[in-house]
Amino acid sequence: MSIWIQLPTHFNFDDLVSEARAGRFNPEAFAQSVALDMSRTQFVGIGAAACLKALALRYQDGWPEGECLAMRHGGQDCISYLRRMDFFVDDIRWCVPEEEARQCRHDESGRFVPLQKPLTDHDSAIVAKRAVECFQGLDARIAASLKYAVSEIIDNALQHAGFRHGAVVGAQAYPNMADRPIDVVVADCGIGIRQHLSQHPLYRSLTDDAEALRIALTPNVTGVYRHRAAGERPDPQASENQGIGLSVVNSLARRNAGRLVVWSGQAIYDSKQGIAPIPVAWPGTVVFLRLPTRLQVFHREIVDEIHVPRASSGKRLGFE
Amino acid sequence: MKTIKVKDIVQDDSVLGRYRGGELRRLAVEALQQEPRVRFDFDGILLITQSAADEFIGRLRRYDEPLLDRIAFASCSEDVSHMLQWAMDNAFSVSERQAALGIDD
Predict the structure, then answer these.
(1) Could you say which of A72, A90, A284, B35 is the most buried, measured as most Cβ atoms within 10 Å of its Cβ?
(2) What is d(CA A102, CA A172) in angstroms, rounded to the nearest whole number?
(3) For chain A, what is the mean pLDDT?
(4) B81 and A319: CB-CB below 8 Å?
(5) What is the pLDDT, as a whole number, of residue A312?
(6) A317, B20: Cβ pair inside 8 Å?
(7) Mean pLDDT, chain B, whole residue set
(8) Measured between CB atoms, does A128 come within 8 Å of chain B?
(9) Looking at the domain covering A1-106, what would its CATH class be?
């Protein structure tokens, strides 16, 4: 017997978060056999679609054998949109006939990229490139900074989350809005930021998701660590990367009047509001990024500001 | 000296992500087992991300620094050379930061 989850009339990423804050949408509900009631829903955004898909992927293995994800809807426009976004295909057991799922596929160029499911590190660059190319005619310098940001957040999910299905990525361009933004969502149902950081000996005692988010947004923090034998002293130099990816993306969003939202466990960061607790946990990490395509500050300037080596050898690479 | 054309490897104008950076590092190590020097030709590459540069250059500096003296970098745009050098200079910035915070064990 499935539990029906009633989705609201308007359901974009912000609506999903508002519903979660109010306790009306709980990702953990997907642990049981659920069915989506979208009969009242008129609009679904790319962020909410990516999140729903990630949750279904995460939990469907635990559903009773033969169960599929049912949906109640009235064939409204948002259902056509979800079909175009490849919401109903891939490896989720939807109770939606395949021919019905296919009927609304059309040319994707110009505005959006259907939901992607990068699985390995190798897929990260391909999906990042595709996401940015949904906005055609961008200045090369702006396209490079967008690609930089999108690649970093996808890379983070694939490198650190440990989600069996990789990540679910969606991108949508809004060329008619004032600052012509692009929205990118990367949703995984992996180990989450706190658990990732706690792999590093320095953060092993971390118990608070909000504190984990604060640390993750700080430059030069990483949970990637080359483990030593049991009993040996941890070596800070064994940190295996620089841990600046998320902080650069955050600065890029903030300084260009964009927005970064990161929800992991029971804490959520919004670049417009800061870090706050949230009553229901996201089982993994969701990153929502909105960047205008009229950037004033580029990734290189931001990376430069983090450039504070005190023990640099001063050695130049062999540039010809 | 063997020349590796980066654009042929990544099939794009950008080197994005750790996987690609690791691929370049592996090619460098492999080539330097056969040859005294190797050249990476970045012609046509507009962007390399920090994570890719760290996986390529930063990791070599952390674990195999002498190899870096045997690698030449050709046809780098200003942005690309800047990011590669950044990765070189910042290879130990995590440990520096931890030391600054008084965290060393």
Answers:
(1) A284
(2) 20
(3) 84
(4) yes
(5) 62
(6) no
(7) 90
(8) yes
(9) alpha beta
